[in-house]
Design goal:
The protein is mostly helical. The protein has helices at 22-36, 42-54, 56-77, 88-92, 94-107; strands at residues 7-8, 11-12. It starts with 6 loop residues before the first strand and ends in a 14-residue tail after the last helix.
Length: 121
């Protein structure tokens, strides 16, 4: 489930995932498919973010890799899994999301004016 990163002198070659345990790969793929259907989870948000650009298969493989990485860290450090939340990627860069949504509305023919909302303390 580990993605390849074969690059030398600025030239990128195949990034295809290597051969590995087929039983582990099938289990991680099934777990990733289940995780993508979980509402409000980091893994579901990661899948949605990647699916638009890469497609279903590559997005599921990436989520499976994230599950494997998280499992390794939990076993290595003795920690419990803490989900980052479904809004993790939105919290990282809210301005980028705002700009994208404004562009989409303008492409649909709407005139968009943004005003900051007053936050009650």
């Amino acid at each position: 489930m580990c993605p390849g990163n074969d690059e030398s002198a600025g030239k990128r070659r195949s990034g295809k995932t290597g051969k590995g345990n087929k039983w582990l790969r099938a289990t991680l793929t099934e777990a990733a498919n289940a995780a993508t259907r979980t509402k409000g989870s980091y893994l579901a948000a990661q899948y949605q973010r990647l699916r638009g650009r890469r497609g279903h298969s590559k997005a599921v493989t990436a989520v499976g890799h994230s599950i494997l990485t998280a499992t390794w860290h939990m076993l290595q450090n003795g920690e419990l899994y803490s989900d980052l939340g479904g809004d993790y990627f939105i919290r990282q860069n809210p301005d980028r999301i705002t700009k994208r949504l404004v562009r989409q509305l303008e492409a649909l023919g709407h005139c968009v004016t943004l005003e900051p909302r007053e936050v009650a303390a």
